[in-house]
Amino acid sequence: MESCYGTRSFPQLIDLPGAWHGNQFSDESEYVYNLSSQEVEEIENALCHFKALGLDGDLICRQNFPLPTVGESLDLIRLDVHEGKGFGLVRGINPLDYSAEDLTMMYLGVQSYIANLRGRQDEKGNMLVHVVADNSSNLSSQHHRHSTSEITFHNEESGDIVSG
C-alpha cells in the first residue's frame, strides 16, 4: 500500500557506506587515526594560542584553534563521519600529561574540525558530559550515563563523540 511516505516495506538492502556490520572493521587502520608526536605538538600549540585569546572554552572553533597540518587529517575523518562509515577514532593524546581543563579545550578544538556544532546533552544545556558510574545516589537508576549496566540500542538526536 502506498502512502505519502512511499511503500511500507523496508528495503531488502541498504547499499551505503554508513550501512555496515561490525565484522567489516577488524582492521583498526580503517577507522583509527594515530596522532604523531609532531601532531600532538601542533594541538598543544593550538591550545596555547586559544588560551592566549582569553576566550571561554565553548567558543573554540577552527578559526581560533589553528591546526594547519592535523586539520587536513581531521577533515578526512570529518568526511568519513558525515558521508562515509559514520565513525572514526583519534588516538595519541595522553590524558595524564594535561590538566582536565586543557584536555577539555584540546578535545573541543579537535572536535571543531570534525563537527561544527555541539548538541546539548541535558536540560541544563551542557554540551559536554562525563559518563561515570555513580552508585552513591539514585542517579544510576535515572540515566544510563551514570550506570555500569548495559544499555539497549538507541539512537541519539545528534551525533556523539565519545572519549575514553
Automatic annotation (TrEMBL):
<dbReference type="GO" id="GO:0016491">
    <property type="term" value="F:oxidoreductase activity"/>
</dbReference>
<protein>
    <recommendedName>
        <fullName>TauD/TfdA-like domain-containing protein</fullName>
    </recommendedName>
</protein>
<keyword id="KW-0560">Oxidoreductase</keyword>
<feature type="region of interest" description="Disordered">
    <location>
        <begin position="138"/>
        <end position="164"/>
    </location>
</feature>
<dbReference type="InterPro" id="IPR042098">
    <property type="entry name" value="TauD-like_sf"/>
</dbReference>
